[in-house]
Amino acid sequence: MSIVFVPKKLRGKAKVNQETIQRLLDENDQLIRCITEYMQKGRAVECVQYQQILHRNIVYLATIADASPDNTPPPPTNSTSNETSMTSVDGQGGS
């Protein structure tokens, strides 16, 4: 059973730390390997339960990432303004 499964009465009380996240990532790796193995053997029906657990784990990890206060997006890069400024400098130097 997935470590993400928590009874309703305990939800929201679990501590999220790096160890928990790493265990989920390791579990996801194993789930993907199982799913791949079953698919190669033509046993797609057996994959469904593992795909559901993998989906639940990924959604849980995404929720943690979205709620993380130190998770700030990188500043936007504006490559078109650099190209424009280089073009205008080249245009002025050629005159």
UniProtKB/TrEMBL annotation:
Belongs to the SS18 family. One of its GO terms (molecular function) is transcription coactivator activity. Pfam families: SSXT. Coiled coil: none annotated. It is found in: Nucleus. PANTHER family: IP09280P, SYNOVIAL SARCOMA ASSOCIATED SS18 PROTEIN. GO terms for cellular component: nucleoplasm. This is SS18 N-terminal domain-containing protein.
